[in-house]
Amino acid sequence: xxxxxxxxxxxxxxxxxxxxxxxxxxxxxxxxxxxxxxxxxxxxxxxxxxxxxxxxxxxxxxxxxxxxxxxxxxxxxxxxxxxxxxxxxxxxxxxxxxxxxxxxxxxxxxxxxxxxxxxxxxxxxxxxxxxxxxxxxxxxxxxxxxxxxxxxxxxxxxxxxxxxxxxxxxxxxxxxxxxxxxxxxxxxxxxxxxxxxxxxxxxxxxxxxxxxxxxxxxxxxxxxxxxxxxxxxxxxxxxxxxxxxxxxxxxxxxxxxxxxxxxxxxxxxxxxxxxxxxxxxxxxxxxxxxxxxxxxxxxxxxxxxxxxxxxxxxxxxxxxxxxxxxxxxxxxxxxxxxxxxxxxxxxxxxxxxxxxxxxxxxxxxxxxxxxxxxxxxxxxxxxxxxxxxxxxxxxxxxxxxxxx
Length: 404
What we know:
There is one protein chain. The protein has 14 helices and 13 strands. It has helices at 12-19, 45-56, 69-83, 99-110, 128-136, 161-166, 185-198, 221-227, 242-246, 260-273, 279-289, 293-314, 340-351, 383-399; strands at 32-33, 93-96, 119-124, 140-147, 153-154, 167-173, 201-205, 236-241, 254-258, 327-331, 353-354, 356-357, 374-378. It folds into two domains: 3-42 and 294-399, Aspartate Aminotransferase, domain 1 (Alpha-Beta Complex); 59-291, Aspartate Aminotransferase, domain 2 (3-Layer(aba) Sandwich), CATH 3.40.640. Helices cover 41% and strands 15% of the residues. Helix 3 runs parallel beside helix 11 and helix 4 (99-110) crosses helix 10.
């Protein structure tokens, strides 16, 4: 077996399952899960119809790994509509089977494990695929903590120069998971300068870009590069997905865009990896990327939900409305002494509500775990269910202000 598999840590949801293994939750309450970031809003009917219509056309041909020209054009057109960017659909855009698959595969494409000290820099806390992709590529992760006093901005200045010097890939997530923080142009400018100096690739995970609560839409890495005159998007790849934007996580559809030279090599890797997208998924994806009305409606649903739920939780937890995404990143009460896992376990037992311990989404690094003492709540269900969960959490905190 591949010895690098032994380096992988249990996935957060497996750890949560183990945490709850011996717990008997309140049988009088309906279970409510805020643990997994899986969109629950209804999939738009027109996307389902496009999927069905494509099936009727048959599945008798192998799809091309590069995707149909119509899909690449639809993705490029969306970039034009959303960010006023003109990318070459043939060379700077590539359909992928969801951002998760692509984040992992791009890492295998980019990393050269034969170079001494191959390093992948990742936010901390982070989406667990970043770490697994780095380890299985033969690189070592370096974790950069977020700072709650600076809207959970990552402390890029804390990375030593010798680490940047051996870095081959940097993961960026904006809007962030789990914090919801959006990176400003100044932060992008700093990272581009570091990339120019040290030659590493930037992988910009932007799958939450269409769920936001401010008037100004989140800035894309591609958009930031263009504003700074980097029109060739050198060493930059952005990842975009339909899962959250269009409520189709089961479709497994997204695209990457950016540096044409990297896209070319990524396509080569994917050709051997067998990563072609089903033609029926491509047809549904073309329909989804071409419509914005359902995205506006989806965003408004989240805005209404967060406006109702956040104040209830803010009465008992350290939490506020994020910039974007569908998570609340809350601090547990001081009386719990930062034990987020114990808090989540006791909450589940008393109120049958599942939240994810923040320490499960981060790593102990340089003497601390930046997720410790926090919980992530995914407000993906309908408003009434999320509001009931918030009221149960508030009731629990008032009854249990400190750890037993």
